[in-house]
Amino acid sequence: MEIKTIQPFLQYFANVRERTMRVARCIPPDKVDWSYAPGKFTLGDLLRHIAVTERYLFAENILGRTSRYTQHGKELAGGRDDILALLERLHGESMEIFSKLSDADLLEKCRNAGGLEIAKWKCFGRWWSTKFITAARFIYISEFSACPLPHSMASRPRKRSRSHA
Length: 165
Hints:
globular; two-stranded antiparallel ribbon; mainly alpha; 2 strands; single chain; Four Helix Bundle (Hemerythrin (Met), subunit A); 6 helices
């Protein structure tokens, strides 16, 4: 994905985030610590990871700073409502940073998480190439059928895990 102008990207990003939030709100509060297997990310871990990656990794890189991502544990937010609030707060901080970018800023260099210098637009593009997180969260959430999958995911086959702990 090549990003030449910031405003369409910000709108796209806002739409993706709203879809994420709709699905996140469907997590039953008593399932936030559910995982498909011991030692794997829980639903809460996934959501905290999304929140802190956006703000403390990508937004920091866009600002020309190194990542401040240190963890995605319950220390940040434990229950579902606290996790949703964390997602909203950190997303707001990120959008404030991103909205200050000009189209010309997208051509400037920043260091990505691996330390390589790349154009800022490529940092955004690489960020969206990690959409596996999107797929993972929808697969996890679909375990509970508390609400339907977004239309874009509804036609994809899904596997049911054997564990419903």
